[in-house]
Amino acid sequence: MISVCPLVPMVPESKRAAANGGRVPLAVRDKQRTTSAFTGTYDEGEICKLLAMLSSRMALRRLQRIAVAPLSFTSGATTKVLRDMSTLPRVYVTRQIPPEGLKILQDSGQVQFELWDSDDVPVPRKELLQKVKGVDGLLCVLTEKIDAELLDAAGSNLKVISTMSVGFDHLSLEELKKRGIRVGYTPEVLTDAVAELTVALLLATSRRLIEATHEAKTGGWGTWRTLWLCGYELANSTVGILGLGRIGVAIAERLAPFKVNKFIYADVGPRPELAKAINAEYVTLDELAKQSDFLLVCCALTPETKEICNKNLFSKMKNTSIFINTSRGGVVNQEDLYEALSTGQIAGAGLDVTVPEPLPTSHPLFTLKNCVILPHIASASYSTRNAMSALAANNLLLGLRRQPMIKELKLTLCSDSAFLHFDRTSADARVRCGGREVGRPLFISYPPLSLRSRGPARLEEEEEAS
Ligand SMILES: NC(=O)c1ccc[n+]([C@@H]2O[C@H](COP(=O)([O-])OP(=O)(O)OC[C@H]3O[C@@H](n4cnc5c(N)ncnc54)[C@H](O)[C@@H]3O)[C@@H](O)[C@H]2O)c1
């Protein structure tokens, strides 16, 4: 059933139409009255008539606030009629994002959007390249590669990209910068969820929980044994963090009560403001590998961090160490990790992220008892995914209004065409070029309120703030 809710042009789904002999089940809801104005199965001609009825019954302003389910006509007259109804900016949403974000887009009255109506299957590349043609804004998730090919397909109308992720390794930042396209992303709202999951993964790996439940279920549980299923504990340990950003700090805060003895970290340079909060010592990457009982990877995936966790790093780690990665799969050389785990070079690994995703079930890492693999779920809590969706929607709307986004990635090209990026709300933001710190950004005054404590951000609040 297609639900037509206030805001964006109504479009039935071609697949369903085809399965239904060209007729499409449709509900047009008058949101103000919360009743269905029309419900039934309609063909394209009938839908045109319904739209005509709607337009005669409602004032223009109201009409522009009519959202129509984000499903698309394949072609033809109806599409044309719908286009003519509105001059609102066009937006393509590459996934069925959680309801908070969709509601914000719908209720804004500011855009007409179409979305890939599935959460299970990413939009096929070919379809995406078609759908982005002429759009003003794009709301994407991390499965979509936003590169020169896509930006060429979109054309010069495209001014804003909003990704529902804090990671931006799927975006070709140089291309975006070159074309003057602004980028919104979703830091902070997911920090708690990711930190919590990282702690869960660490404990599951170090205390061998997955192996243990398997043994209990499959008859391996004999008598109580002195060294059976022993693991490694956090008390008195040294925890090393590679990339002490928001998530790294949040993880350390959660691990401290486990009586960790010492936190150390490696980054592109010391981060004293953040390190102070968790009493962490800055060390080189080599020292991080050598000293850590638990090595947690929390850095962004960039050209500099690609496969930074490789044979060289694993060979310096203790054979009692636990390696945890909840950043991006690309920071790890998986062949080297397999080697380190299978030869006992390190004790165990917990991965939330891999290359590729999904990791094929035949992958050698799945054969190892000392490797716990999760399907990229670190931010997967209902409240966080809704907050990410809301923030991504608001970033997009603000960008289209040429206002400062709530969370915007500022991009500046260096002479060597490496990019600079910084988050203007970060307390100790530094401007970096190719991993080198080259200065501090000019701060734009912005309310440093936690979006989490305020609940999902709403556009109206940000209007006041900006
Ligand atoms: N598994 C998931 O579902 C999930 C969810 C959210 C975020 N993430 C990943 O976590 C990453 C970190 O998120 P955050 O909010 O803490 O970002 P952040 O920007 O606050 O922290 C990233 C840290 O990595 C550091 N870094 C960058 N290049 C480095 C290098 N060459 N060597 C060492 N450190 C380097 C940065 O200086 C920074 O301190 C994201 O980029 C994202 O890829 C994964």
UniProtKB/TrEMBL annotation:
Positions of the D-isomer specific 2-hydroxyacid dehydrogenase NAD-binding domain: 199-378
Listed InterPro entries: D-isomer_2-hydroxyacid_DH (IPR050223), D-isomer_2_OHA_DH_cat_dom (IPR006139), D-isomer_DH_CS (IPR029753), D-isomer_DH_NAD-bd (IPR006140), NAD(P)-bd_dom_sf (IPR036291)
One MF annotation (Gene Ontology) recorded for this entry: hydroxypyruvate reductase (NADH) activity
GO cellular component: cytosol
Pfam family, one: 2-Hacid_dh_C
Keywords per UniProt: Oxidoreductase
Domain D-isomer specific 2-hydroxyacid dehydrogenase catalytic: 91-407
Coiled coil: none
Similarity comment: Belongs to the D-isomer specific 2-hydroxyacid dehydrogenase family.
Name of this chain's protein: Glyoxylate reductase/hydroxypyruvate reductase
Species for this entry: Gambusia affinis
